[in-house]
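Progress note, sequence design subtask.
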């Protein structure tokens, strides 16, 4: 379990706006979170999920934030978009075990939810659980994650 203060980004398209707002409020009140950066969207605004996912993932890759939570209709588009940014690992989560393993086995810095797929209370709970996990570079999973990182470094 982690004891650090996370810098967390949140982002959503219009299909994930309500969850983003609720989760951002939860994060702001969580003692494990040092700051929350909201990358939008604003209420009534429409933005392609890919634009939000890429922008947030770039902030993670640059080290401006430690981790991020993305929300769209299914969570899939956000995860796909974020994974296009070198150095970023993102996944959708819908249960406690995949949430845990996303960090402990895969060193994912970004999780995504589908507002049309996962209930709000479950998404809020998973976001809270996720804050407690930190990847251990000494774990056996590090060699597996390193394969991904090495591939990213060799491709244009």
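Output:
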């Amino acid at each position: 379990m982690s004891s650090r203060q996370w810098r967390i980004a949140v982002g959503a398209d219009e299909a994930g706006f309500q969850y983003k707002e609720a989760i951002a409020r939860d994060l702001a009140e969580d003692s494990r979170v040092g700051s929350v950066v909201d990358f939008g969207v604003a209420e009534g605004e429409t933005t392609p999920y890919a634009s939000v996912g890429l922008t947030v993932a770039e902030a993670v890759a640059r080290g401006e934030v430690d981790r991020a939570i993305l929300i769209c209709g299914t969570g899939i588009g956000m995860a796909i978009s974020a994974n296009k940014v070198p150095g970023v690992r993102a996944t959708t989560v819908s249960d406690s075990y995949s949430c845990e393993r996303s960090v402990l086995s895969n060193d994912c810095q970004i999780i995504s939810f589908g507002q049309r797929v996962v209930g709000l209370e479950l998404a809020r709970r998973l976001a809270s659980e996720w804050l407690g996990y930190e990847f251990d570079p000494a774990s056996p999973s590090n060699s597996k994650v390193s394969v991904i990182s090495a591939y990213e470094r060799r491709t244009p």
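The domain at 6-154 is CATH 3.40.1400.10 (Ribose 5-phosphate Isomerase B; Chain: A,). Work on this subtask will continue into the next period as scheduled.
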